[in-house]
Design goal:
This protein is α+β, with helices and mostly antiparallel strands. The protein is built from 7 helices and 17 strands. A hairpin with a 5-residue loop joins strand 7 and strand 8.
């Protein structure tokens, strides 16, 4: 990808998309905050004293200094480390040393610049495009479908976040995540996954999909039902998995995102980060199962996918490769690459001149 095309994809995709930040439980108390990096932009999302979740550009209005470097935390006031300009949880300027010597200095005109923030299914999203349609309108019907399968969405809490640098373009990472064609051919853990799960139902449109998977025991008997509702755009994935195994309901949620880091070389190692978050409902007896799922994803399945991402990125630079062929069956099952084709169409529509 050329530098110009890379910049265009950043401007037209990442700076115009809704980005998944976290769950509302991360903003329960006034002053709870999370920061998010989007290309060379930084967003500060905070819980106000009135209970509202607000988002702002993470930059001081005096000289443009970055305000908060910490990923998440809690604070009563946001103070710039350069000249001590301070801001309230509502983004308003509260203090600015020596501005009393200025004529007609208006604190109200120097508050933090707001960023659009909305919630969907108890998840928090931000968008740097003030003209973008609402997150709910962009995925009509998705929240109702998720809540139909996952009634405990409001009771989730964060239990772990892992950022994994991947030496591959973000589109390579996304392609890998939206097709199961490679499961039975690419590694021992993927082969186990292919043998364990068989997709009984899959319906999808441009924005979200619902999947029913049946865990199969020895002899081919169904051991339990996994239901998943997925919301996708070009930059983010939200995968909600509901398990009913051995008459015990667990709720395990995976929040997977590709975060684009601005760099002149779009393929440079470490330029892209795939972030994984796992949350669960407050069921103590499910904690061990959830932790085992986290370890399996981070230590077994994840490394296999990362190796595929890196080798795929290397191969795409070859002079011996031009373009491939989609493997698409008559029905959109888990082995089909119909979502990859759709993803490519979305990317093309976004970046074409």
């Amino acid at each position: 990808m050329s530098g110009r095309c890379s910049r265009r994809s950043g401007e037209r995709i990442f700076l115009r998309s809704w980005h998944l930040i976290g769950h509302v439980s991360e903003f329960r108390e006034p002053g709870n905050f999370v920061t998010e990096e989007l290309l060379d932009q930084s967003v500060l999302i905070m819980a106000g004293r009135d209970g509202e979740i607000r988002a702002f550009h993470n930059v001081c209005q005096h000289r443009g200094n970055r305000l908060v470097e910490t990923r998440r935390g809690r604070t009563a006031v946001v103070t710039c480390g350069y000249h001590a300009w301070s801001y309230g949880l509502d983004g308003g300027l509260r203090g600015a040393p020596r501005t009393e010597c200025l004529t007609n200095f208006d604190k109200g005109a120097h508050g933090l610049k707001p960023v659009r923030v909305e919630t969907l299914g108890s998840f928090v999203f931000v968008n740097l495009d003030p003209a973008a349609e609402s997150v709910a309108d962009s995925v009509p019907g998705a929240e109702a479908e998720m809540r139909r399968f996952l009634p405990d969405l409001d009771r989730l809490k964060l239990i772990q976040e892992v950022d994994v640098p991947v030496a591959a373009n973000w589109k390579v990472i996304q392609e890998n995540s939206i097709e199961g064609y490679h499961f039975n051919y690419s590694g021992p853990v993927h082969k186990q996954l292919d043998q364990a799960d068989r997709f009984r139902r899959l319906h999808a449109d441009a924005a979200w999909q619902v999947v029913d998977l049946y865990r199969t025991a020895a002899g081919g008997h169904d051991r339990g039902l996994w239901r998943a509702a997925r919301w996708r755009d070009l930059a983010d994935r939200l995968v909600l998995q509901y398990r009913a195994v051995a008459e015990r309901d667990d709720l395990c949620v995976s929040l997977c995102r590709c975060r684009r880091h601005l760099h002149h070389d779009p393929d440079r190692a470490g330029d892209l980060v795939a972030a994984l978050r796992l949350l669960r409902a407050g069921r103590p007896r499910a904690a061990g199962c959830d932790q085992a799922c986290i370890r399996w994803m981070n230590e077994d399945l994840g490394p296999e996918d990362i190796r595929l991402n890196i080798s795929n990125q290397k191969g795409l630079r070859s002079l011996g490769y031009d373009h491939g062929r989609y493997l698409i069956g008559e029905t959109p099952d888990s082995r089909s690459e119909h979502l990859v084709r759709h993803f490519h169409r979305l990317c093309y529509e976004a970046v074409r001149p």
